[in-house]
Write a structure and sequence with these properties.
Layout (H helix, E strand, L loop, with lengths): L1 H45 L2 H4 L4 H47 L2 H9 L3 H12 L6 E2 L2 E2 L6 H7 L5 H14 L13
Antiparallel strand pairs: 1-2
Helix pairs in contact: 1-3, 4-5, 4-7
Length: 186
């Protein structure tokens, strides 16, 4: 199941690479357009006499209106492209993190989830399941041998990540102690 989730996340990521290139090109064009609009507006700002000269006033007012609107519209488009590119970058980072976690051993996952309580969690999981995600003892399943009621409340899954996260939730809810488990870290 973990491999399937990884494939589902990677496939859209590869499809996004073309989209990212398109968005980057669009953003470059937007920034170029904004630069040109700003240059025209700065020119008109420094040549205000154009607005009072009857020969140029109609054209100057028209150019002011055109480039002001264009600048505002292009700023919005550039901001939207930047947001989407940032979301794509965030998604790529999540895919890389998930791939690293999916490839990790249950012990590594437990340490990542429990952080400063890593050694305690490893001791409990080793005693409860021998660090096996498929361990079963009656209704008790997984790395931390959580019962059906606990799995319903705190979650569960086939992967070490899902099981460690669920056990961590249970650990936090129990007051950050190992009381609910038969095995203790000491």
């Amino acid at each position: 199941m973990g491999a399937c989730a990884l494939i589902l996340l990677v496939v859209p990521a590869t499809a996004q690479s073309q989209s990212n290139a398109d968005l980057s090109a669009q953003l470059t064009r937007h920034l170029s357009t904004m630069k040109k609009d700003q240059q025209v507006l700065r020119f008109l700002q420094s040549h205000k006499w154009l607005f009072s000269d009857p020969r140029f006033s109609v054209s100057a007012k028209r150019q002011l209106r055109i480039h002001t609107l264009s600048l505002a519209r292009t700023k919005r488009k550039a901001a939207a492209a930047k947001r989407v590119l940032a979301q794509h970058a965030k998604h790529r980072a999540q895919v890389r993190r998930l791939a690293a976690v999916q490839a990790a051993t249950p012990r590594t996952v437990i340490c990542r989830v429990f952080a400063d309580r890593c050694q305690e969690a490893l001791a409990v999981s080793r005693c409860e399941s021998g660090w096996r995600t498929d361990a079963q003892n009656g209704q008790y399943l997984g790395l931390f041998q959580m019962g059906s009621n606990e799995r319903r409340i705190f979650g569960h899954g086939a992967s070490a990540v899902e099981q460690a996260v669920a056990a961590h939730r249970y650990f936090i809810a129990s007051g950050r102690n190992w009381g609910p488990w038969s095995c203790k870290p000491w």
